[in-house]
Amino acid sequence: MTEPVDVLVIGGGVNGVGIALDAAGRGLSVTLCEMNDLASATSSASSKLIHGGLRYLEQFEFRLVREALTEREILLQAAPHIIWPMRFRLPHRPHLRPAWMIRLGLWLYDHLARRNRLPASRTLRLGEHSPLQPHLQLAFEYADAWVDDARLVVLCAMAAAQRGATILPRTRCAKAERENGLWRVELEHTSSQRRILHARTLVNAAGPWASRLFGSVLSSPPPATLRLVKGSHMVVPRLHEGNEAYILQNEDGRIVFVLPYERDYSLIGTTDVDHDGEPADATASDKEIDYLCAVANAHFRRQVVPTDVIYRYAGVRPLMANGDGRAQKASRDYKLLLDAPEDDAPLLSVFGGKITTFRALAEDAVNQLAEHLPQATAPWTQRLVLPGGDFSSHDSLAAELTSEYPWLADALIHRYVRSYGTLCRAFLQGCADTADLGEHFGAGLYQRELDYLMRQEWAHSADDVLWRRSKLGLRLTPEQQARLAAYMEQHEMRDTYPPAKVGG
Fold it and tell me: Ranges for the FAD dependent oxidoreductase domain (predicted)?
């Protein structure tokens, strides 16, 4: 039997990698397994926001909002390359929410937690140049933050690996059982290769599969039930100029975001629909697309129809089941349930949660595990800087890269800064001109970058690159995507190993 690891995490979404990172940074030995790609489910299908949850104030979830606002400040510091401030405009519709209610909510939003990096909210009069319908004359503006959700997961996995964690994507947990005071865990790679690991503690961070894992892997009844809620989004040509986002109130009480996306597009979402099927099969239905179009058209001068949709996606949120109310009312809070029989190996299960609070959730989780792992050191991630985030501002890093690589196009530098931060030097090092970047697959994706993604960021398939490590799937033609897939298949990395310590 090999030496047991201290912590074995099941699930490569944001909560799983967050726990792996926190634990590895406390000196614990960690292995994480994920049955697909990192961030292949809910954690790459979000609205791409780090936010306190303004609408949660109406549900009196003040603790959740306060925690999320606190985390917003920490994450802006931790990952300035993939998380940055964004202004949100809320058009006033008096018959839905009176102005005094919105102003009160925004005052609370401004003051529930310390706010160092973002400006306070304000009231705006919309002029004739507003992209909104002429009858919308008043709006409220506040600040939150944007995040590249899938890259957040990958960067946390890299940071965990740099601290000694073993990250095993495309490796599912087939069976886990307690044996002689440890967990005996059977892992199966997509190649059908199997291995047995032993662990002192086990973490169930399987997201939408967290309850199902008990029946299929742990052979025991789940201690809690999840409510699976599907949220769908669509990408359309840009509805408005400017870098601000819009938060739209709908007649049914829901809100819909319209976000500037990848320079040329608008991202519109989300819906809240109960989902009963396999989480991996969730898709944005035509009915949901019609709904999102209708909400956008009720607010914007520029109208959108389903045929304008360039891309659509859906994610399944694992929310705590709390009654039979509407899906939009289900809490976005989380629960950590610890099963620790005396003299036997503990199991910690994660139920619920949201991207904004993943770091706090992970710290809470490892604090609980640390009671059974006395070698664990103190919490540390409040000072976290993720790989590539060691720079002061986008503009300053762009200026440095322009000086170091004057032959790089501005658009390419812009993307490198907002995807990799200082990590881009790992694949730019030694390049003297564009030819040194190797084969061009389209839309500014070159061989050097692709090789880096395969070797350092666990990219295995074209989808991993086009929709999770980047969003270049919006821009590459079918022929270019096929060439990319062929190259990756030809140069497949057959061994799984931690990434090198590149930057950060």
Answer: 6-329
* Residues 417-437: b if buried by 16+ CB within 10 A, e if exposed: bbbbbbbbbbbbeebeeeeeb
C-alpha span between 25 and 362 (Å, rounded)? 12
- Global confidence as pTM: 0.96
CA 483, chain centre distance (Å): 28
Is the four-CA dihedral 103, 107, 112, 115 of positive or negative sign?
Answer: positive
pLDDT at 325 over 60: no
Question: Distance between CA 169 and CA 400 in Å, rounded?
Answer: 34
Going by their DSSP bridges, the two strands 226-237 and 245-249 should be labelled as unpaired
Please give the distance of CA 496 from its chain centroid, rounded to a whole number.
Answer: 23
**Predicted confidence (pLDDT) at residue 185 exceeds the cutoff of 70:** yes
CATH numbers and ranges of domains, the chain: 5-42+151-225+331-383 (3.50.50.60), 86-146+227-321 (3.30.9.10), 394-490 (1.10.8.870)
Question: Which pLDDT score is estimated for 476?
Answer: 98
Note if the bond before 356 is cis, omega within 30 degrees.
Answer: no
* Token pair of 324 as six digits: 């039979």
Q: Give the tokens for residue 463.
A: 């989808």
Question: How far apart are the two ends of the chain, measured CA to CA in Å?
Answer: 35
